[in-house]
Amino acid sequence: MSSADNKAKRASKNLYQISPSATEYQRLNRQHELIQEIMMGKVFHSPVKDPIRILDVGCGTGAVTYHLGSTFPSAQIYGVDLATIPPTPKKPDSVTFIHGDYHDLLGSEDPYITPGSMDFVFSRLLISGMTTWPSYIRTCHTLLKPNRWLEIQELEFPYYDDSGVISNDWEWFQAYQAGAEAKGLDLSCAVRAADWMREAGFVDVQTKKYCWPHGEWMAERGHEEYRNIGIFLTTEQPRLYQAIVPNMVSGMGYSDEKVKELQRDVLETLNPEEGKHKNYWVTFGKKPS
Ligand SMILES: C[S@@+](CC[C@H](N)C(=O)[O-])C[C@H]1O[C@@H](n2cnc3c(N)ncnc32)[C@H](O)[C@@H]1O
């Protein structure tokens, strides 16, 4: 995975649209805290017991990797990402970061990531880069030991309010969806993960859906743990989608002026409103014995 021969292949698969920067690292770390807040302190849901090796796929800043390291101090934790993980003076020896492409986890030259070696595989928010979901999930099945767990946490693309989906008619939303499809991304991965896991042979597959509110309405309805994420998403989601739109619709024949119009449409549609939200899905399942 980390050989020079794979670099061109890897680059072509790097569809993730946000380049690593201090601002992006800050956004990911804050998002990590807020996801943990709405999950009432949890980071993962799988019943992981006495793990020896854990893999965090597309680990970003390593926020989950470090969490796993401190939760399971006697385990070895591996985080894989194409981007460089920001250095930290507090990195425990049990945490190893591997620079590589998550499309190539199997057949990797990496001695740590081998079939039947893992006690837990975790991934979160790969929606903007993963192009091979069913085969990725089969690979995770191969990497796991029997009776061990895979957990996938992903965001649904549509926006909802209390009456149902509200985003289908938004122009930027339609363009983004078409661009994503043309690039091999699957924006419905959050809702399809459970079926893909069952098809790959996982059992006891469970899902839990969390709300990502746009604004503070969940808190006003008595769910205080959603206040901070609601405030965060109100500014961060429009900023994120505005940044991603040009790459996502590239190659689809839009003029620069039209792309700017789509970016303005992001801002116009993503104002905070009562009930406006996305769904965030946690899916986990066990490789049978
Ligand atoms: C939205 S971030 C999520 C990071 C982390 N999982 C989290 O939840 O904070 C997606 C991550 O996937 C990584 N990524 C995108 N394409 C990748 C690929 N082909 N192989 C490995 N990592 C990739 C990006 O570099 C980025 O760090």
Automatic annotation (TrEMBL):
Gene3D superfamilies: Vaccinia Virus protein VP39 (3.40.50.150). SUPFAM superfamilies: S-adenosyl-L-methionine-dependent methyltransferases (SSF53335). Signal peptide: none annotated. GO terms for molecular function: methyltransferase activity. InterPro entries: SAM-dependent_MTases_sf (IPR029063). This is S-adenosyl-L-methionine-dependent methyltransferase.
